[in-house]
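As described in the Methods, two query proteins were run sequentially through the folding procedure within a single session, without resetting any intermediate state between them. The first query and its resulting structure tokens are shown here.
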Amino acid sequence: MSGLFLYFCFMAVEELHALFLEHQIISTDTRKITKNCIFFALKGESFNGNKFAKEALKAGASFAVIDEEEFKFSERTILVANVLEMLQNLAAYHRNYCKAQIIALTGSNGKTTTKELINSVLSKKYKTIATHGNLNNHIGVPLTLLSIKKDTEIAIVEMGANHKKEIEFLCKIAQPDFGYITNFGKAHLEGFGSEEGVIQGKSELYEYLLANNKAIFLNADDSIQLEKLGAYINKFGFSTDNHRYSLIEFLSANPFVCLNFEKETINSQLIGSYNFTNCAAAVLIGKYFNVALKHIKEGIENYKPKNNRSQLITKNGHEIILDAYNANPTSMKAALENFESIKGKNKIAFLGDMFELGKTAHEEHQTIANIIDTLNIYTVYFLGENFNKIETKHEKFASFQDLVTHLESNPIKDKSIMLIKGSRGMALERILDIL
């Protein structure tokens, strides 16, 4: 490939892939340039990555992929028709170049935790990679696929969506061999339009797998999934005719989930009975891939949550369940019901707004307040614009600073068990700094 061709013509995906094999690090942020990486100049509503191509090369990138001709200035600047589309096409090409089996996960709740659990189990026997953090959208999925190495045997790819047809699009890129939907819940209602819209959107994963004669891991205890897919159930990787969820016994969640499988007790480090299904999926997928039971047990027991996901923290004598990574009506209800079941007298819940609920926002926030009234949780602090509009007997604050001011005047003195739960944009982990 001559420099002249690189300079004047759009590069084909096959040619870019040949360069990628020599420079297998992709960067989309000039603040995180790694030496010899390939910089993709993505665009957003408020930025144009093309303008940073020269900066990326000076910082150590080997090549910069751009889609505006005015920013090509050397043979290290690769012009393509559309940078984002090229990133996605490159990922699909690389996915087929490598021979790894792809397990795709989606769902309203528990995607990231389940993905981490599955990876922890399968990595006991196979060379695996998994989605980093929650890079699960139209950019994150391609980046995950491009992290697959020649010797990778299984890739666990998380797929997120807030509109219909997004999962369908991601499947075309990732071309999964297996799929699992954690659940259908009231998440991203603003984009999906309704709970039925959520079901339709998430089910695009199963529809892809069925159309391509691939395998589905089905939660046989999920009535919605059984109703939608019952006619095909005998085709699935595990279902009522194979490794049924009912074979896994839920022992307890006080506070950590404990389960039993084939006479082996597995003690997780995950809080909440709602994490039982996530653990069960990892156990049964491990079983499907012939991971020894002792290694399945190790994989589950060694996984410790992080990044504000159901973390158990002790601070100033308080036992705190920090679940502030995200929230929707389904996960909020589950977290509260689990919180009530934990033994202890002085329970305090800090609940932040749930985002992306559209026209249903007020109704869903009021419903959570009504649920609180049926539970034995006597002290609740509601935080955010939506919760500030509800009717409740509990304290509510429109802003975080209002909460800070209140706690400064009314500090929590008794040792307590606390739940901190809210959407990512609420950043409720800040509460730890003011306790």
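Immediately afterward, the second query was submitted; its sequence and tokens are:
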Amino acid sequence: MTDIPRAYSGPAVLSHGFRLFFLLAAAWAALEVLAWLPMFRGDLALPTAFGPRDWHVHELLFGFLPAVIAGFLLTAVPNWTGRLPLRGAPLAGLALLWLAGRYAVAFSGRIGPLGAAAVDSAFLVVLTLAIAREIVASGNMRNLKIVGLLGLLAAANIGFHVEAFVDAPAALATRAGLALVLMLVMVIGGRIIPSFTRNWLMRQAPGRLPAPFDRFDVGCLAASAAALVAWIALPDAAVTGAALIVAAAVNAARLARWAGERTASDRLVLVLHVAYAFVPLGFLMVGLSALEVLPPSAGLHAWTAGAMGLMTLAVMSRASLGHTGRPLVASPALQAIYAAALAAAVLRIAAALAPDAAAPLLMAATVAWVAAFGGFAVLYAPFLLVGPKKRRAA
């Protein structure tokens, strides 16, 4: 992403989407999971019409992750299109719409299902329309696939509300939402991981470079999409399990093409490869669960806590450094945040695989997750809120 200099005299936090939305996303990721464990145990009750599981799933899948996506796209799309970014009052209004959604879901027992659904659904619908307008106006049509995925995610959120209040738990909408976010991770990850890896390796000793995007990547995305569609419709079918395992193999091969083994000395690049490794791991574990070999929760948390959790931290931290003009170096504190996020993913998967030890493992995973995202919010808040607006290429 390159900078587009434009005159702006308002608050730094409203100058670009990443500043406000990355902070909101990190803070909510920590707070939501901090509340989830006592809710799961029955020690805490919110005035929500959702069941505890559905509230937890919804607020991570359709609350936290869309905030990260908004921060990324509202910063990246102006650089893709050459148009002015959303900033100032319109950006603040979009953030207030996201916050209204969090309130509406938490108090949906008092607001009512229909009112809560209307308020919460508005954010993703408005974000999709805003991104579509910018891409269409610029003529940069190759990025419309991002708009398509975002629009489907907005539809999945609406479907989640309907399913949760008609036939809870919202299993079908949960699978649809997970599949769509995972496709965004694969599409965007396939763009930024080899790019950042190549840029860094070109400054090192000669050696293997990431393979460019080609027909293999197209085939990988197609196989992954087909497997995910099968999983949404028939999660327990043997043919679905086979398709998911095939997708695991091609995604593992895709990751191997990006020369990640050469990036060990640059943690900002390495963490992207580690995060993507949870994509094929999740495909494998969910495929094995469809074949009744593993519990479903193991693979789901490989995707959510692993691929999505660690990837969001990797992208948020790198983009925040680069776009505020700071050196692209992972400080010891940032490396500790990455380690905590990785530990949270591993511990959460272990809790699914070892039910006899689930309670302490869940507690440890919660502590690690909150440390990772709370740590990001604390570490990055000073320069995201009031830091210089100057950015450098990421």
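Residues 1-5, 389-394 have pLDDT under 50 and may be disordered. We note this only descriptively and draw no conclusion about the first query from it.
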